[in-house]
Automatic annotation (TrEMBL):
UniProt keyword annotation of 4Fe-4S present: no
Pfam families tied to this protein: Glyoxalase
SUPFAM superfamilies reported for this sequence: Glyoxalase/Bleomycin resistance protein/Dihydroxybiphenyl dioxygenase
All residue ranges annotated as the VOC domain in the record: 1-125
Keyword tags: Dioxygenase, Oxidoreductase
Statement: the UniProt record of this protein carries the keyword Transmembrane: no
GO MF assignments: dioxygenase activity
Naturally occurring in which organism (per UniProt): Labrys okinawensis
Full protein name: Glyoxalase/bleomycin resistance/extradiol dioxygenase family protein
UniProt xrefs under CDD domains: VOC_like
Upper lineage: Bacteria, Pseudomonadati, Pseudomonadota, Alphaproteobacteria, Hyphomicrobiales
Amino acid sequence: MIDHFGFPVRDYQRSRAFYDLVLAPLGYSVQMEVTREMTGSNAHCGYGEDGRPQFWIGDGEAREGSFHIAFVAKSRKAVEDFHAAALAAGARDNGAPGIRAHYHPNYYAAFVLDPDGHNIEAVCHLPG
């Protein structure tokens, strides 16, 4: 249903450094970067895998409020590594790695708040 999504961040370089560290344990990295010189306005970069950027951040005026994003993790260990990397990168804990059985018996997830206060989740749906 969704091809890609993105949003502006308050501090592009800080958020870029944050997502570089946090998404690496999940196997995601910058697949494309578009500079201000290329666009004539805002810079942005897209994260994903296999040459396909699906999650974008960009400089510009950050939106008010917060939102929730859940990234697919290929293992429970990847969820744990995501959570540890996020905390090391300055995120605030918003839910330690663990089962969320109210969603389903194998819903293993962790939640953090990114530099702009957005609720970022890594989730693995596979059995332990």
